[in-house]
TrEMBL record:
It comes from Stichopus japonicus (Sea cucumber). InterPro entries: Bactericidal_perm-incr_a/b_dom, BPI/LBP/Plunc, Lipid-bd_serum_glycop_C. One of its GO terms (molecular function) is lipid binding. GO terms for cellular component: extracellular space. Residues 129-335 form the Lipid-binding serum glycoprotein C-terminal domain. It comes from the Eukaryota. This is Putative bactericidal permeability-increasing protein.
Amino acid sequence: ADESGHLKIDIADKHCHYHVEESDIELSGGKEWLYNLFEDKIEEMLKKVANEQICDLSSNAIRKDLASALSTVEVIIPLIPDVMSLDLSLTANPASTESFLDILHSGEIFDVNSRSKPSQDKPAFPSDSEDSQMFYIWLTDYGLNSAGQTLFSSGYLHYSLTQKELPENNTLQLNTSGYEISLLLPQISKSYPNKEIQFKIYPSSPPSVQLTEEAVELQVQINIELHIIQDDSTTDNVATLQTTLQLAGSLGLEDSRFIWSVSSFSSQSKLLEADVEDLDMDIINSALSFASHAFIKQYIKDKGSEGIPLPELGNGLEIVHPTIEHGEGFVKIGIDLAR
């Protein structure tokens, strides 16, 4: 690996061996009897030239053509334009054994506008000599957590919800005099009658992912700010809630698709601050828990059942016999390629 994380390749001349065991030439013409007197010498001369030139040509092709091609391979892969990219640069020289080649990539997902040092140290991979499949790809919670850190710091996960953002066929009224708000937040309805409401929703800390042998565990803390939209279009933040979502599930492969399932899901909310008194947090917590299960959990389950198709490689190649294995801090995916 070079300083930029590209794969660097070279060949030592002493390690190149090419040997022409035998050659056979036929000489014809008016002086054929004379030519054939030197047939053996000509054959030996051609064998010597071939043995020397083939190694030179091979070495030059590797040093120039292949090395040049490898140096231009993209090691920074955009994931979300202008938001985050994946760093696939090499972090160490490839290690080879009799049965496989081990290549370590960074795997860091970073903010393209402000790259900072990841909060989590890069993991040390456990030794693994399995070689029953052509390729093994290791996904770590380091990579997933660097993605969470990037989405958090970039503000990509900030949302604003008003009546305008709701679907046209929606019956929910984001108004202090609407039925739902009057039922859940009567104190706010009395203090701010007939006012439009804006919810500002954003994570209060980076999402946390932990990969174990049994499950994929995710925790997200979300702040929900309730703003009253005044007649002059300014807004007043009258309450801030914090909801902690915890879920666990597993990844799998089915019909050439990545799928996932949810085995546990919980939602717990608390009041951080409010400009009105006596908000009933029991009712609010129950309502947010119901909404989280009905919408967030169900959305994750539906997407998991739908799955994500394995990538198409083109050039007549396809991924076959995919496998997936959970471990402490990683998920290992094995694949074979076929035409």
